Amino acid sequence: MFEEGEERKIRFGAENVFDFSLGNPNLEPPPRFKQVLGELINDPAEGRHAYMPNAGFPETRQTVADYLTRFNQPTFTPEEIVMTVGAGGGLNVVLKTLLDPGDEVIIPKPYFVEYNFYLENHQGIPKVVPTKQDFSLDIDAIERAVTKKTKAILINSPNNPTGRIYRVGELEQLADLLSRYSRKHKKPIYLISDEPYRKIVYDNIIVPSVFDVYSESFVVTSFSKDLSLPGERIGYVAVHPDMSDKKMVIAGMVFSNRILGYVNAPAFMQRAISRLLEESIEISVYQNKRNMLCSALASFGYDFVKPEGAFYLFPRTPDKDDVAFVTTLQEENILTVPGSGFGGPGHFRIAYCVSDAVIQGALPGFKKVIENYRK
Ligand SMILES: Cc1ncc(COP(=O)(O)O)c(C=O)c1O
Which of 12, 187, 253, 362 makes an SS bond possible with 16, Cβ 3.0 to 4.6 Å? Predict the structure, then answer.
């Protein structure tokens, strides 16, 4: 898709190609980010660029722990925080720690494409389960997927690609199910919550915390999306303070961070984000983009669940064949991704973390394509 886009940009001019294919935020980091970098560069202390504990700087982990304590029922200490190379690095650290070859991980679909590859890295087996029509969790489907080999369930809210936020009731039901089967199988089934979009939510919807409902849980997150820093590769994993086998799990994570070759999360960014935990890009900018896109596409006749967070829209394709539909959009120089790649055939994903001009420029093409399908 990327190469197709580049080729089209050369042929038609960059301003005539409307690229919605990547979740690469178009907003610059908040102004405070540059101020903080300036302050850090002028810090005269020595050893700031040296190796450190593999879990990260104790001061950074303390600030993250304090921050989480404010927003969750449990009280966190630095011990429960491991700084990681983005959420992607964090997920690999957790999976490397938990999985034995052949262990199963339940993944509600549609899901972030990389999950399959991450599981493959650690010889885990994905057990993909459907969600409901509105992309909320289907607890019965999850229950049907549980076996003695189930090691974890991996959820993502706000969701890429659907923009769905799981409600507290869903999480409570999930926690209840996982507790029952953990008891039955006499070993914990872990809940891994991938949350890089936690701050990117609209209409004052609350993203409930898995930490408030289930003690065998991890939160994996990053600053890639809410501070627009995906290239800086900084994130963290937090472990529930009451997790059973907590000490062993954390030791495994610290070791995994090391032997996966990350060693530790980037030092400079660890120091930066500890001063930026309260910051985020202007969420209303993405909300306006969502509104602009949703009202136009709805008026053209596209069918979709309105996203509640993140910056993706996942409409149904008017054609069953989502790959064919995405190819038709490409002919209008509109680049999107077929839903089948996310385990959501019959849909396509629009990443609307792009300029308003790209959205506006693409609207006539979106309209023409659906009208042609209707003929
Ligand atoms: C759901 C989800 N998880 C994880 C990631 C990886 O994020 P990071 O850049 O922090 O590794 C992404 C990136 O798009 C994502 O959408």
Answer: 12
